[in-house]
Amino acid sequence: MELTKINEKSMINVNCLVKDFGNHRVINGINATVSPGEVVVLIGASGSGKSTFLRCLNGLEALTSGEILIDSVPLERNSKSLKEIRRQVGMVFQQFNLFPHLTVLENIIEAPIHVLNRPKSKAIKDAQELLSKVGLFDKQNCYPGTLSGGQGQRVAIARALAMQPKIMLFDEPTSALDPELVGEVLSVMKQLAEDGMTMVVVTHEMGFAKEVADRVIFIDEGRIVEEGSPTQIFGNPQETRTQTFLGRLS
Ligand code: ADP
Ligand code: MG
């Protein structure tokens, strides 16, 4: 396979990415670029490789072959590179895994203090600003167990943002939430997009994709089947597999 030409301006460059688990090829030759400030939504059936793709992007999975560049820097399997990538690429999961024995504020300042060596006073000030941004300033001294799922996920977003990432990855951030709590998380994500964050979002929230995505990528069996603007993909999908997938949702 030919390597795609590397676009110097891209925030994320993925060239011929292949990821196997044993003899199961889960990512089968993905090429993709994401521009600074772009919001890309990944859609696809369960098991199509979306989570694995995101996990490759922040160095949580070793690549079988291919190459990933983050802000033009190749992602390599040495600890220095991985540490740097994990700082630059924030990730929010379905299960937000806040530390239950730490308050909301303590959850957020933990990594800035211990990984970025920020003075505690500065970390607290920054964390409070982030909590205001996600609408949870008044919850700073609460424990995660007392929060709703939507509030917990907003804290998880603030915690990821506290590392001042260049890119934010979201893996089905609202899938575990009660329906009435989905909107508050999506609205924080929308605000982040409007503030210019580069984002790759796996979601089944097609309303969010239509409203916020610059580009929608449909993945099936570890390959990009089709990509385009939300209008193109939702309004006029070209590939049979995309049509079938979207048909199943409606
Ligand atoms: P999606 O997020 O689109 O549902 P995943 O990336 O989670 O898909 O999974 C894609 C495929 O890879 C699935 O068949 C899944 O079982 C497999 N897979 C994912 N992670 C692992 C792993 N750590 N070990 C073995 N197989 C895995
Ligand atoms: Mg997944």
TrEMBL record:
The taxonomy runs: Bacteria, Bacillati, Bacillota, Clostridia, Eubacteriales
UniProt key word Ribonucleoprotein: no
Similarity comment text for this entry: Belongs to the ABC transporter superfamily.
Give the domain of life.
Answer: Bacteria
Protein name in UniProt: Amino acid ABC transporter ATP-binding protein, PAAT family
Q: Which SMART domains match?
A: AAA
Q: What InterPro entries does the record point to?
A: AAA+_ATPase, ABC_ATPase_HisP-typ, ABC_transporter-like_ATP-bd, MetN_ABC_transporter-like, P-loop_NTPase
Native source organism of the sequence? Desulfosporosinus meridiei (strain ATCC BAA-275 / DSM 13257 / KCTC 12902 / NCIMB 13706 / S10)
What are the GO MF terms of this UniProt record? ABC-type amino acid transporter activity; ATP binding; ATP hydrolysis activity
Gene3D superfamilies given for it?
P-loop containing nucleotide triphosphate hydrolases (3.40.50.300)
Query: Pfam families, alphabetically?
Result: ABC_tran
Domain ABC transporter, chain residue ranges per copy: 12-246
UniProt keyword list: ATP-binding, Nucleotide-binding, Transport
